[in-house]
Amino acid sequence: MKSLALALLPLFALILVVPLAVADSAPVALHGMAPLPDDRKVPRAMLPPGTFDPDPGPSGVVFPAQRITVRFNHARHMTKEVGATCKTCHSSALRSKSATDSLIPTGEACDACHSTDHSDAAHVKAGDDASGQCGYCHVGYKASDGNVVPALELPRANLLFDHKAHVDRNIGCPQCHGAVDQLELATRDQLPRMRGCFNCHQASDAASRGDAKSACDTCHVRADAAGGATRIKTMFASGTLLPPRWLHNAEHGPDFIERHKTVAADDSQFCANCHKEDFCTDCHDGRVRPRSVHPNDYLNMHAIEARMSTERCTSCHQQQSFCLDCHMRVGVAESSPPNAKESARFHPPKSIWSDPPRKPGHHAFEAERNLNQCVSCHTERDCVACHGALGVGAGFDPHRTGFLGGCATQLRRNPRPCFACHEPSDGVLAQCR
Amino acid sequence: MTAVATRRVASLALLAVTLVAPPVRALDAEVTSDTAAQFYDVRSPTGETVLTRRRLVTTLGVGAYGLVEAPPGDVKAPELSFRARLRYDADYGASAAEGAPTVSQGLGLVPGFSRGPVDLMYGYLEGRRLLGGWLGFKLGRQYVTDVLGWWSFDGGEASLTLPFYFKAEAYGGLEERGGMPLSTPRFERDGIWRGSRAGYDGLLYPAFQPATIAPAFGVALESAGVTWIHGRLTYRRVYNTGASNVSEYASGLYTPAVYDGSRISSERLGYAVDATWGGVGGARAGVVYDLYQAEVSSVYANLDAYLGQKTTLSADYDYYVPTFDADSIWSVFAAEPTNDVGLRANVNLTDELSIAGGGSVRVYGVQTGPFDPGVGARYAPSPNYSAASSYFPTNGHPFDEGANVSARWRTGETLLTVRGAGNFGDEGDRVGGDAAAERVFETRYVVHGRAGVWEWQDKLRPDRDATSFGYVAGVGYRFAPRSQGSVEWEHNMNGLVGQRFRLMFLLSMAVSK
Predict the structure, then answer these.
(1) What pLDDT shows up at residue B117?
(2) Is A93 contained in some domain?
(3) Closest to A189 (Cα-Cα) out of A300, A30, A54
(4) Quick one: B177 exposed, middle or buried, by C-beta within 10 A (0-12, 13-18, 19+)?
(5) Which residue in A363, B229, B233, B502 has its CB near the most CB atoms, within 10 A?
(6) Is the predicted pLDDT of residue A18 greater than 60, yes or no?
(7) Residue A320 falls within a domain, yes or no?
(8) In a mutagenesis test of the A interface, which of B130, B145, B399 is the best target, namely the one with the most A β-carbons within 10 Å?
């Protein structure tokens, strides 16, 4: 008897251990609550192509925040044992032509294996075993909730996307969504990254490159007439769509206003994907001072700013009209009407500013350093008066060093500025002929 | 171009569009208007009011989209649209005498000044993705923006998207010039005081040059389709036509003389490129060569390094020499280049909060010795050629320094910005900062304000140093999407001119179908 008991001991142990093991494995039933067990970080290799490391996730504007109230273990379902594939549950993706289509399976997709019955959403019937109970999949469900389960919130993507077109081109799910088959819960992190789209979408608008175009409106939603129609929509409930820094180096940071010129200079059409001309002209041809550029009291401050050329006035202002008009009216310009003229108040004393011999503070140094500031007040006549070959200051040569090296071309293509100072018969011009 | 020729060109263009365009469908349309009324005074450094500004700027824009049939959502379908915007920019504070060309000089005439000019900012018909995606065009008054600057002309532009990642573009027409109908001088090259001389006697302000048509054309070749690198090679030539007063004195030294004939206004070649490398960084560069002045007029280069997901560190270089219309004598004046070298960083602390800042050094050239006009020059003796009779600095490369920092905190309904800047050089210093806030309540009530303190020192005129404090307070109401009315009060004070006030009324409206 004793020996029998000893012989059966392993069996007893097995009987004892198995339930314990099952009990210990109870947390296994909680799989599917996160992409990986213990909420481990998903390796970059499993994330969609184009993911950075560290990964900030997909655009929160394009893919608004989700609330996932269903636990689901993709990896478990896609084992050979279960045998599911992507299209087992997401077959609608094969036919979908719009990002507004719902590609999430209904509960009926679960019924066959879990012995549940979701055919009538108002009266869902639980299955026989644990895996068929509502709380098995619906996170937060309590028996007292009856037929009501916590809502799943998966906002539509603010995007144009034709799944069918991609499927038809033999583009597999992992090429955009990463290794979902190796993950438990699929979250927003498995939604595509724009940088990954560019793995294929690197073609121009022309028909010659097929459909994988990189034009913004290939994927981004176009604005309606109110938003400019030919532009893409940038304002969403989920936020404002802005370019990532790795796209044309166009991150719209706090100082972008000071460096946007290099983006626009290279590819203004890139800017025009989101901005209408009006956005640019408000500053670049503006008649109302933009305070984000020119701070308070700029009317008093602008002279020192122009002198220092901390901002390039000519980016937005034509000096011989915008600046000169006003300077004439207020009397600081040499050409101001006699009844308004009070220009002597602007420059240093004449003895320093213009009298020979040249000394520190002389206008020649200021002109060489920042000729634009002179042009904002003076017409060329003011300079010709002294610098003209026959003017009152004849002989004060304003040309740059080495001027003779290129003056022949200038004289040939437009002699007008030469004749403003030199008579056409002036022998000096012979050096440029 | 004669009126008959203009009509012929217009007819041909219309015919071409009609032939290319498929049947018209129900169009999307919008009408927009922005109005700003400003009331303020301009005061002299001694405090007197020298201008009473009563300004009204209002624009009227129209847009019509979807002028050709296209299946909904078909991003490959051809598109035809029309957009235009008119502007009225008046100063009712100006006297009638300021803009009247028949008034004698003694009564305050300001040549080129108009109390209420109207201009067409843009107005063009645009076709995109025609001929299977190969062809695009624009017809009418339009902008061109590239490394050569911000420019406007009346004419046509066609772009051909080629295989193998290139797009070719050609355009031609007339440069938009002040003094011409519905035009402003904003986009012509600087250096020539020019406008309509209609009604001017020949001896009245001869230095004020007559505006005439300026034929222009340009071509560009740029990359297309590739997202990680983009480059644009661009060339533009503009001609001056008609008479120009060469001698600009009504009396005294010379009799007005005129130079007539077609000639170059500007001719420039530019190239810009940018490239990014995933999570590593990016680079941008550009160069402009002025073919009339035969010199590089502008160069810039930026290098960005992405340090993690939140920080970008950049190095910037900028080279600039002012250039002008070839009619201008300043085209042949000595002008030293400025070279700016800077370092900058941008940190996105959170999704809402970003901080950026940087510092830069400007190096500019100064003539340190007598002019050297070159071998064989035959100029008359001048103090410019004599070290003995003129002072020349010993340091040919003085430095200016500058730094700025800015921060932005932005949520859906609130925007807070703070910025500070300091610039220091031989000609002056400026340092200060301001803070601004805007908050939208219940999606329609807007409240905003700004306050700033700035101090500047004018080293050429030390008596112009000042510290300024100013603030702005405003409220607005959004009565419809993209439609808002608001009122602003601005108050500035500094030791030079005392108190200054500005009252502004702003109204933006948009109606679309």
Answers:
(1) 94
(2) no
(3) A54
(4) buried
(5) B502
(6) no
(7) yes
(8) B145
